[in-house]
Specification:
With about 300 residues, the chain is mainly beta. The protein has one helix at about 20-40; strands at about 1-5, 10, 50, 60, 70-75, 75-80, 95-100, 110, 120-125, 130-135, 140-145, 150-155, 165-170, 175, 180-185, 190, 205, 215-225, 225-240, 240-250, 255-265, 270-280, 285, 295-300.
């Protein structure tokens, strides 16, 4: 007798004379029934069949209980409790505490907030990984750094504004050629609060520092040697492209003739102003040196 390729069911050979057809059909039907049952072992609603170690035979996995999930146990499918995603450990960090390190829902608390007791409280660092509370100040106070420069504190606002500005001058005479615009090289400072000026580089310039954009009082003075020919001029320029102010007057035969002028001008951080001298006396002419002779000064007034 022949057998089928996959399940080995017994069938007559092609050349067999089937004497008892009913018996042959019954034998084949029994084989099919057995194989079908082996492949469908489920008996209850919700059962799952999976391949067993025996060929052409499945194994029944009964339906699990409420809340279980399908997993693997000993290499085969199995219903298991839904606790496989538990957090087994939570490590607390700075300002964090853990009330329960295990379980599906660990309780994590921002412990630094326990320091806050009043609306407006601030937290600040006292050491590495350590914070402390600074209680809210009173109306009108400002946040400052304490005397030891170790912690913030609330204190009264200063009633005296901090002065910002520069006063620079030429220490000795500077000669200007006839009929030529010449930058005035201020090489000495009486004061300079915020590095407005550099005595070595771009000495004719005063540059507005970062954070100090606003209105400035600009004062310029120039002392010329005596000469009655032509006229004298000082020009203050912004970024070498536009004029802030120009003042001039005719030459005088008096010794050390002096001119000066002031203005208020709005400048942006990064802007610079520079002073340029001019004279057309017919020859070289000197600007006098000294702190009250030829100088350039600005004072920050505010935004």
């Amino acid at each position: 007798m022949a057998t089928t390729t996959n399940y080995g069911w017994t069938t007559p050979n092609d050349t067999d004379l089937v004497k008892d057809g009913a018996a042959a059909i019954r034998t084949l039907g029994s084989s099919i029934d057995t194989t079908t049952k082996n492949l469908n072992p489920e008996t209850t609603l919700g059962d799952i069949a999976y391949r067993s170690a025996s060929a052409n035979t499945n194994t029944r996995l009964p339906i699990g209980s409420n809340g279980q999930i399908l997993g693997v146990s000993a290499g085969v499918p199995a219903w298991i409790n839904n606790d496989q995603g538990d957090i087994t450990e939570v490590q607390a960090g700075v300002g964090i505490s853990v009330a329960s390190g295990t379980g599906p829902i660990p309780i994590i608390t921002n412990s630094s907030t326990d320091l806050i007791t009043t609306a407006g409280d601030l937290l600040y660092g006292t050491a590495a990984d350590t914070v402390a509370r600074l209680g809210i100040g009173t109306a009108g106070q400002v946040l400052k750094v304490n005397a030891g420069a170790t912690a913030p504190e609330w204190g009264a606002a200063s009633s005296t504004p901090t002065f910002k500005g520069v006063y620079t001058y030429i220490a000795s005479d500077q000669t200007l050629s006839n009929n030529t615009s010449t930058a005035i090289n201020y090489d000495t400072e009486l004061f300079d609060t915020d590095a407005f000026h550099n005595n070595a580089t771009n000495k004719d310039r005063i540059t507005i520092p970062a954070g100090l954009g606003g209105y400035y009082l600009i004062v310029v003075g120039a002392q010329w040697n005596s000469n009655s020919s032509g006229y004298r001029q000082i020009t203050i320029q912004k970024n070498a492209t536009s004029n802030v102010m120009i003042f001039d007057y005719p030459g005088l035969s008096v010794s050390n003739s002096y001119i000066g002028k002031s203005t208020i001008f709005n400048l942006t951080a990064g802007d610079y102003i520079n002073a340029v001298g001019y004279q057309n006396s017919g020859g070289n002419l000197a600007l006098g040196g000294g702190s009250v002779a030829t100088f350039f000064s600005v004072q920050y007034l505010g935004v």
